[in-house]
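User: Quick sanity check before I run a bigger batch. Here is a single chain. Can you write out its predicted 3D structure?
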Amino acid sequence: MFSSRLDWSAPENPVAKSLREKRSRGVELLDLTESNPTAAGFSYPADLLLAALSDPRALRYEPNPAGLADARAAVAEYYRTISPDVSPDRILLTASTSEAYSLLFKLLADPGDEVLVPRPSYPLFEFLAALESVRPVPYPLVYDAQWWIDFDALERQVTGRTRAIVLVNPNNPTGSFLKEQELNRLAALCRHHGMAILSDEVFSDYVFSPDPQRVGSLAGVDGVLSFVLSGFSKVLALPQVKLGWILVGGPEKLRSEAFSRLELIADTYLSVSTPVQWAARRLLACRTSIQAQILDRVRANRAFLAGRIGSDSPWRLLHTEGGWYGVLEAPRIHSEEEWTLELLSQDNVVVQPGFFFDFEREAFLVVSLLTSGEIFREGIDRILARAR
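Assistant: Done. Predicted structure follows.
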């Protein structure tokens, strides 16, 4: 009776079950997986944010499949420091980044077609692709002092049904950015096979240090059909204020055709809220103070973590360039699941095992650098005390 797109009967995993039982008993936990910025103790300019959402123009409905001109212009200005060529007519607004993926999979792929997705990465692609009857095919990121795309493995995954390569830049949870030489190789590969690049850049504002080889954004790329995705969930740390966007790039003729087709798809849904569109310009003006607090937090937590792991430690902190997460390589005395369950049962510390993000080998633990400093420091000390 129901669609087979998802495994609707997937059982609760042992980590989720143990966590649910702990919370049901009211146990006080040190949650090092906090990913909700509105619950992480930051100070938001409430008066400015709420005033922006009270614009009286929101009382009038003016449907536009690409989004209101003023909101698109505000997003274009956000990109001007990256690429002066970004214009509002290359931007299509969505209700979220997830919806942006949905529209793009509809644009680029027929049922049964394939998109290449990074591994490790955020475990949402499997669901987003499945809901569009598209097959996600993983390509590996490999670690050697920093993260790199394994191009030999990626190229072996390309078939006649591959329609796009998805990037997460910086990646979640590895915090790794695409490098210039990688972009050049990807662009050549996509041109050769008639594929597009989808670059998810929701964390691109959260950079730890400069690197001249880093590709901060694909906003200025014009040699291959590309789509840059972002939105208020991370740019403003306001996941409840539903506004995302797609920035279309590439050769002019191909870009124009892609945008026209996207407009037709978006016109079927017209999902973006009018109040948030009229608020977009004023909301984006608030991002500096919010992002500064988050950057201070994630940099301080990462510095604390690095300072706790000496050269003789059985633990290893993987190199991170940006984002909100840290990755610990744990001693192989336990599996990731065993580590996660032991920390939860014995120390009341919540972390995520690497297999949640499709790490290809053991044993990695992922922690959120967004966690409040006091909880983060105590949680890390309990983790490291398990093996010295």
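The chain has two domains: 14-43+288-385, 46-284.

User: Great, the batch can go ahead then.
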